[in-house]
């Protein structure tokens, strides 16, 4: 049994853009309300745009999206903002990103992203043309949201403090505060176990593989190669179906829906 507290909660209305801290999250089988319900689709390839492929899409991390479904606004790097349902949003974002894109609210079956290995990005740089894999997203989540795999993603303060990187870089929904004596990579031991937070019950499904995204600039945060180099060196984990990968954090599915609040106790049970 592991006792923790919910330190912070975040949602990301548009996939791969910066998101927002919230005092509570209502969760169900598809994940957190308003989380990754929108994404940009590259009209040239039909694939979902993500900063996992930094040569093409790292500028997404200069944008931020806030608001509940139907009221999402996107703030641009120059401080201007635009509503997600503005008729001009595709044209504005296409011009900014240098590629034709469409802001979609429904993931098509088999939707894919492009993911270079983080080792290659670290070695050759974010502007280099490197090989990439194409991966189907949301394989562990029902519905049409744009999560990477499972409905939710959590990480502990023990892991973050050991790496020495900000939670923002890993894009979690839940940051769980642990005791000072708790070890890094604690999340590895949760697989198949349940996380109970008030009325909500979650189950750990997979360790969270790390791509190059945590190393990139996030708004005003500078580059941070160590954010992935530490997991690469210390926590390569067998991720079922994906192989041995550097991991930090854990994916979670929702067994019992409800609302999670900052400050609530969280407990891992057998």
UniProtKB/TrEMBL annotation:
<dbReference type="InterPro" id="IPR005302">
    <property type="entry name" value="MoCF_Sase_C"/>
</dbReference>
<dbReference type="InterPro" id="IPR011037">
    <property type="entry name" value="Pyrv_Knase-like_insert_dom_sf"/>
</dbReference>
<dbReference type="Pfam" id="PF03476">
    <property type="entry name" value="MOSC_N"/>
</dbReference>
<dbReference type="InterPro" id="IPR005303">
    <property type="entry name" value="MOCOS_middle"/>
</dbReference>
<dbReference type="Pfam" id="PF03473">
    <property type="entry name" value="MOSC"/>
</dbReference>
<protein>
    <submittedName>
        <fullName>MOSC domain-containing protein</fullName>
    </submittedName>
</protein>
<feature type="domain" description="MOSC">
    <location>
        <begin position="128"/>
        <end position="269"/>
    </location>
</feature>
């Amino acid at each position: 049994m592991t006792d923790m507290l919910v330190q912070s909660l975040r949602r990301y209305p548009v996939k791969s853009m910066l998101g927002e801290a919230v005092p509570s999250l209502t969760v169900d089988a598809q994940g957190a309300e308003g989380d990754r319900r929108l994404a940009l689709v590259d009209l040239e390839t039909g694939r979902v745009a993500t900063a996992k492929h930094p040569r093409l899409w790292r500028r997404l991390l200069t944008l931020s999206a806030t608001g509940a479904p139907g009221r999402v606004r996107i703030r641009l790097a120059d401080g201007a903002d635009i509503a997600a349902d503005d008729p001009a949003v595709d044209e504005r974002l296409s011009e900014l990103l240098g590629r034709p894109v469409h802001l979609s609210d429904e993931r098509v079956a088999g939707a894919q992203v492009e993911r270079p290995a983080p080792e290659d990005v670290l070695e050759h740089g974010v502007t280099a043309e490197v090989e990439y894999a194409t991966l189907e997203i949301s394989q562990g989540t029902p519905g049409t949201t744009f999560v990477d795999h499972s409905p939710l993603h959590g990480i502990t303060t023990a892991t973050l403090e050991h790496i020495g990187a900000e939670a923002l870089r890993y894009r979690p929904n839940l940051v769980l505060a642990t005791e000072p004596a708790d070890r890094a990579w604690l999340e590895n031991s949760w697989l198949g176990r349940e996380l109970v937070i008030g009325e909500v019950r979650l189950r750990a499904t997979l360790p969270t593989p790390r791509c190059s995204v945590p190393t990139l600039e996030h708004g005003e945060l500078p580059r941070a190669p160590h954010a992935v180099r530490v997991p690469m060196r210390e926590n390569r984990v067998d991720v079922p179906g994906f192989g041995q990968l550097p991991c930090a954090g854990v994916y979670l599915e929702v067994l019992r829906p409800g609302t999670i609040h900052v400050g609530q106790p969280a407990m891992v049970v057998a």
